[in-house]
């Protein structure tokens, strides 16, 4: 019986430190998300990890990023990313359970897997988390998704997404992608350019907007059709305009 006491003390000490760690992590993560509600991030955890990997491989290229406020980004690309990535962006709270259900059906019936990540989930992943896949990262992705939906609002989420999403090697955000691929500002993107940029988002390191293959062109045409019914997310006149 006396031997059980040290074990109980050790267990309680471990439990205490776990609770302390969770409380500290919660406070720091809430502060982190709250600060980014008003402060524009100049780098993300994802881009930092990619840069470190490139440096380790002998490449010194720093990811290009040129921040643009939401209203200075073409309405076409704002509609295009919704059409291609998250058509229920304004109606869900970070998780599109309809899309998740469809993805599960595809996996069980066809044996194929397709992503069901919302723009909110992708933003949480790229801004706060590392690139490798694991259950821990998926759990943290869901946690940060809840936080950004709580603190930021849809306009801010879309603004940060457009400015931080990976659009190809060394390219972070819509302004860098617009300048590199089409030599225009993101404010001046045409409907076709916006649609093809949105079309490559599932695989920006393999697909090209300037030399699109059949799959990219097919996605571009679908996005062009769906853009017609997508709302325009804007701060100027409330959450969105039709």
Task: Characterize this entry briefly.
The chain has helices spanning 4-35, 45-56, 75-85, 97-109, 119-128, 135-151, 154-164, 174-182, 191-199, 214-227, and strands at residues 232-233, 240-241.
SSE topology sketch:
Blueprint (H helix, E strand, L loop, with lengths): L3 H32 L9 H12 L18 H11 L11 H13 L9 H10 L6 H17 L2 H11 L9 H9 L8 H9 L14 H14 L4 E2 L6 E2 L1
Antiparallel strand pairs: 1-2
Largest sheet: 2 strands, antiparallel
Strand content: under 5%
Q: By CATH's scheme, which homologous superfamily applies?
A: Biosynthetic peptidoglycan transglycosylase-like
CATH class: Mainly Alpha
Number of strands: 2
Q: How far apart are the termini?
A: 72 Å
Number of discrete helical segments: 10
By CATH, the topology is Penicillin binding protein transpeptidase fold
CATH architectural designation = Orthogonal Bundle
Helix-strand string: HHHHHHHHHHEE
* Morphology call: globular
- Name the structural class: mainly alpha
Integer-rounded radius of gyration: 21 Å
Helical amount: 55-70%
Spans of at least 5 consecutive residues with low confidence: none
Average pLDDT: 88
Physical arrangement of strands within the biggest beta sheet: 1-2
Number of domains: 1
